[in-house]
UniProtKB/TrEMBL annotation:
Name of this protein: Zinc carboxypeptidase
A Pfam family assignment: Peptidase_M14
Limits of the Peptidase M14 domain: 89-380
Any one Gene Ontology cellular component term annotated for this protein: extracellular space
Species of the source: Lentzea waywayandensis
Co-factor(s): Zn(2+)
GO MF annotations, alphabetized: metallocarboxypeptidase activity; zinc ion binding
UniProt entry keywords in alphabetical sequence: Carboxypeptidase, Hydrolase, Metalloprotease, Protease, Signal, Zinc
GO biological process: proteolysis
Family of the protein in this entry: Belongs to the peptidase M14 family.
Taxonomic placement: Bacteria, Bacillati, Actinomycetota, Actinomycetes, Pseudonocardiales
Length: 828
């Protein structure tokens, strides 16, 4: 019998593996922390980073085809009585490994794998529930998964439906983990026929806690201060890289991301605007139907607090809970073929509630929340089991359309109840993108590696080729948009849209573009046939080079963060570098060996230097910054000392500081007399770089540059068109920048240079309209100074940014502009 079944499975695998023809609170949620003025008000200090390990481990299984169960003896952690979950009657992090170890000993249906570590080194657990499989059976399932990704049909009755449940991505939204534990134990130990049959037909994957550091500390963010539910297409955090690996590896038919807290419970699908790169017709029918069933299950719990769940698509105004940005878990997962949901459980137990409510009330609320999590998970498992053939066909069709290069489908009004013109968003996929090293070789390599990491297919040309009338050299990279995950490729590479007129509000950012903001040269080939000799890319080719005759001084232009890292590496060795007026860094010929070493390490390219330049030493920065800015500055190799108003008032040694960066948490007016005196003395010799409202206010109060700041609409955000000047900061900058709560500068004093202006058309992609009183809109910003530089009366060199060049570690092509500002302001 076993041999017969195995033969059937192997035969089925051989069939589906055959190559295909063709070419390859009532009731709208409040805006969350980090989406408003507190970005400028709260400084990030070193004590939040002292134990950060910055581990970037992904899938740790040597053989993803090994069978199930995959038993892992998990390391255990000492009891931590300070774990914030204990007060709520929930599972502290240190209890998870013993619980999972015990279940693995008890049941052959549960497997636990460590798929990475958090920023502070805590293990991240992928828990899989499925009926036991031999290695051969697992290999066949993997072949089925890969065949579906190619857009080809598999025997639906033989494919085990994958479901992914993500929990606790916001550390102070605890109960997803606890509801998942209930379901895990039930699936692992229950002997009823329904459970056994479900696991014969399914694999259920749980990311038990996506943010263990935040769970323990009771913070929304991870240990580095990042909101992990904003980082998916940037992948700056180790926890996000682990989740990204999970969703790509498991390719779920359906997924849940368990959050809190919205009164009554919130269940996606979202309001418009919907992401324009989705095959939305393949999402919304199952998305809405599954949401309605989860609503019934939550109501059936019988708690008065869960009597009226909210489905934004049905219940909210446009934009209040939109599905536009690919930065969230659920929206990102859709590009990997999942019908996905964000679930917001109802009873608040974090922040002020955690501090003020009695423990008994918090535990009562947490019990209700855990019930809701359990209900949504179980309903999802049932929905997938009941609709598995349709869901498999749905996912296959999404990938088939991408591989075939078909247009998105027109979705008629009433496709599901309530679907109308406001829900209809689409794009035209180009035929291909071409990525070259024309502007920056390390930027091109980074972009290619990012695409490949996200399962976007890239090829490297082995010979020169012509496309759209342009000749490209061998080594250029081509993203053929006839590929299964074309939606993910396009959402990262396209410009995006100005959706200001399509929604009165947006929940979070509305514009991003790796093509425009990551510093690589990327061309678009819109349509037509093309041929080139290329090979699939696993990783970008090395880019480092020293292209100068022996005995010549070496030049490095600061066009990318990798260039900055290379310079700071050389400076940290005590080498005598020079900085020229255009920002180029010169390495003496005698240090050619060191230049070759950093060229190989960072992928940068040295050319022959021109004579001249001022001596450049390693810079130490005092930084009042947000978490994302701090990470970028340190990744760039700067020596950073974090400060705030409180730190300066407590006494601060300025003697070793070369530059001051002000972006958050520093008020000149609130400094005590001694702190002002120390700062004023520094300003006579040191440089200043500021960003945002806090930086502009600091400039005004410290009486540095004569430049009047004007604030744009506070929620305005996105990719903006800019016109660069010829000064030390604007020269050779990208023609695009990023804004969030933008500013511009007027009434400029004598000697103040405009480094960058907003374009005549401001928004390239994003959301920016005027306030109700008509102020702060795009029209008012058009042509205005976005970045200025100058020398203050006290001698301080100053640069003011009205843009957001380091926002959430995303606009990587802008980081070199910040570095040029630091080097310019701190060089005398």
């Amino acid at each position: 019998m076993r041999r017969t079944l195995l033969a059937v499975l192997l035969a089925a695998a051989a069939i589906v593996a055959a190559p295909a023809n063709g070419t390859a609170q009532p009731s709208s949620p409040d805006r969350e922390p980090g989406n408003g003025p507190e970005r400028n008000e709260v400084a990030t200090l070193d004590n939040a980073f002292q134990a950060q390990l910055a581990l970037a481990q992904g899938e740790n299984q040597a053989d993803r085809h090994q069978g199930y169960p995959r038993r892992t003896k998990l390391r255990t952690y000492p009891e931590n009585t300070a774990d914030k979950s204990i007060k709520l009657g929930l599972a502290p992090y240190h209890s998870l490994a013993p619980k999972l170890n015990a279940l693995q000993q008890k049941s052959n249906r549960i497997s636990v794998e460590v798929v990475g570590q958090s920023g502070l080194g805590r293990d991240l657990y992928l828990v899989t529930l499925t009926a036991p499989e031999s290695a051969t059976q697992t290999r066949i399932q993997e072949q089925f998964r890969a065949t579906i990704e190619e857009g080809r049909n598999v025997p639906a009755g033989l494919y085990k439906a994958p479901i992914w449940i993500n929990n606790n991505i916001h550390g102070d939204e605890w109960e997803g983990t606890d509801g998942a534990l209930r379901v895990i134990e039930h699936l692992a130990t229950s002997n009823d026929a329904e459970t056994r049959n479900l696991l014969q037909r399914s694999r259920v994957y749980f990311n038990l806690t996506a943010n263990p550091d935040g769970r323990v500390a009771g913070t929304r963010v991870n240990s580095a201060g990042f909101d992990l539910n904003r980082d998916f297409v940037t992948s700056s955090q180790p926890e996000n890289r682990a989740m990204q690996d999970m969703v790509e590896r498991t390719q779920p038919l359906m997924m849940l991301d368990e959050h809190g807290y919205v009164t009554n419970t919130l269940i996606e699908p979202t309001t418009p605007p919907h992401g324009q790169n989705y095959d939305f017709d393949l999402y919304i029918k199952h998305g809405y139907a599954g949401g309605l069933l989860m609503e019934k299950a939550v109501q059936a719990l019988g708690h008065p607090e869960t009597a009226k769940p909210e489905i934004p698509f049905r219940d909210y105004p446009v934009g209040e809970w939109d599905g536009w940005a690919p930065i969230y878990t659920a929206q990102y997962s859709m590009y990997h073929g999942a019908v996905s949901y964000t679930i917001e459980i109802p009873q608040q137990v974090n922040r002020q509630a955690y501090e003020t409510l009695p423990a008994t009330e918090l535990q009562r609320r947490s019990k209700i929340n855990t019930d809701v999590v359990e209900a949504t998970i179980k309903t999802t498992l049932d929905y997938v089991d009941d609709n598995r053939r349709s869901l498999i066909a749905n996912q296959t069709e999404m990938f088939r359309r991408g591989a075939a290069g078909e247009k998105q489908r027109y979705i008629p009004d009433g496709f599901v109840p309530g679907f109308g013109p406001e829900d209809r968003f689409s794009t035209e996929f180009p035929r291909a993108y071409v990525i070259t090293a024309e502007r920056s070789a390390p930027a091109a390599a980074r972009l290619v590696d990012q695409l490949v990491r996200h399962d976007v297919r890239v090829e490297r040309a082995e010979k020169p080729f012509t496309l759209g009338g342009k000749r490209y050299p061998a080594g250029s990279y081509v993203v053929d948009m006839h590929q299964p995950k074309r939606g993910l490729a396009n959402v990262m590479l396209e410009q995006g849209s100005d959706i200001s007129a399509k929604a009165p509000v947006m929940y979070d950012i509305s514009g991003w573009s790796h093509r425009l903001l990551w510093g690589a040269s990327v061309d678009i080939f819109k349509s037509g046939q093309f041929r080139f000799d290329g090979k699939p890319v696993v990783a970008a080719a090395p880019t480092g080079d020293v292209d100068a005759a022996p005995g010549a001084d070496l030049a490095l232009a600061l066009t990318d963060q990798k260039d900055v890292s290379a310079v700071n590496d050389l400076l940290s060795r005590g080498l005598g570098l020079r900085r020229q007026d255009d920002g180029t860094i010169v390495v003496p010929a005698s240090e050619r060996a060191a230049a070759k070493e950093v060229a190989d390490r960072y992928g940068v390219r040295f050319t022959t230097a021109k004579p001249g330049g001022q001596a450049l030493q390693r810079k130490v920065i005092a930084a009042a910054v947000s978490a994302d800015e701090l990470q970028v500055l340190r990744e760039s190799g700067f020596d950073v000392r974090t400060i705030s108003t409180a730190v300066l008032n407590a006494g601060f040694d300025w003697s070793r500081i070369d530059a001051l960066y002000v972006g958050a948490g520093l008020s000149y007016a609130q400094l005590n007399a001694a702190a002002k005196t120390g700062l004023d003395e520094f300003l006579k010799r040191g440089g200043v770089v500021t960003r945002g409202a806090t930086g502009s206010r600091f400039n005004t109060e410290a009486k540095l540059l004569q430049a009047t700041p004007t604030a744009g609409w506070e929620d305005a955000n996105g990719v903006v068109n800019v016109v660069n000047g010829t000064g030390p900061i604007g020269a050779n900058a990208l023609p695009h920048s990023f804004v969030y709560a933008p500013q511009w500068f007027t009434n400029l004093g004598t000697g103040v240079t405009v480094e960058q202006r907003y374009g005549s058309t401001v928004i390239a992609s994003g959301h920016w309209h005027a306030r109700d009183n008509g102020t702060g809109g795009q029209d008012a910003a058009a042509g205005q100074a976005a970045v200025v530089s100058g020398t203050a009366a006290n001698g301080a060199k100053v640069v003011l940014f009205g843009t957001e060049p380091m926002f959430r570690n995303h606009p990587k092509g802008l980081y070199a502009q910040v570095a040029r500002a630091i080097f310019w302001t701190s060089t005398r």
